[in-house]
Amino acid sequence: MTVQPNGHLKGQVAIVTGAGSGIGRATAIALARAGARVLGVGRRAEALNETAARQPGIEPMPADITAGGVPQAVVEAATDRWGRLDVLVNNAGATAVMSLADTDADRIAGLLALNVTAPSLLAHAALPHLRAGRGTIINISSTYGHRPLPGAAHYAATKAAVEQLTRSWALELAGDGIRVNAVAPGPTESEALTAAGLPDTVVEQIKQDEAARIPLGRRGTPEEVATWIVHLADPAATWITGQVLTIDGGLELAP
Ligand SMILES: NC(=O)c1ccc[n+]([C@@H]2O[C@H](COP(=O)([O-])OP(=O)(O)OC[C@H]3O[C@@H](n4cnc5c(N)ncnc54)[C@H](OP(=O)(O)O)[C@@H]3O)[C@@H](O)[C@H]2O)c1
Q1: For the chain, what are the domain ranges?
Q2: Which has the closest alpha carbon to 19: 79, 45, 8?
Q3: Does pLDDT of 168 surpass 70?
């Protein structure tokens, strides 16, 4: 499924973190097709360049969003270039297979830094600009932000945090006309499992197991998630805030 350009985001400026692959790449492309100018952020310049090459309107910014001062620099890069910021998509994130028996402090700190702290500091830096234009924040959670995930409890806990940030900021910022929502994808084709350091055979097994558990019988595509991010970003979505939209082929309801 591809998002049809509707032009509703024409003139708007968006930041998408993790735009070099998976859901972030599909989102950057879909937002640009809908008329937005998009700053695509990630650590790998070549991956971002490939995203930008697929659709005009995407400006790559290679950066590690967990590094000191980077969230502020990312927001300034967008506002210096285009003079405004309307949409922040907090997409960059990582998973980790880590049972309690194998839990260690550095990996917990790494997950929190990327999945919770960086999106918070990006939203903080974006706030004056979002206030000025009555903009919107879209955070990326997971089915496992609200379902238990044995063997990866800390990943699930960071996504539960993302969902509570979403609901709390929605109330905190409603008076400013800023909408804050989240999407919670189920298992989606991307680089996430490989990026978690899992060997190919294990990745393949996880994918098969996930597809078998999903009521619609398959894993999702990044475009099937991006289309809902674009809907939530659309200024026409004027009356939705504080919601977590699960997009997972029915997985969250499965026994
Ligand atoms: N795929 C799924 O099954 C699934 C399910 C539920 C939720 N999600 C969530 O969806 C979001 C997108 O993940 P994905 O599935 O599309 O996986 P992905 O392909 O691994 O994308 C993650 C992106 O984040 C970027 N990134 C990682 N660390 C970064 C850092 N420190 N600074 C800047 N960028 C960084 C990566 O690029 P670089 O390596 O170049 O930095 C990469 O492009 C994540 O929040 C993930 O938790 C995914």
Answers
A1: 13-191+222-248
A2: 45
A3: yes
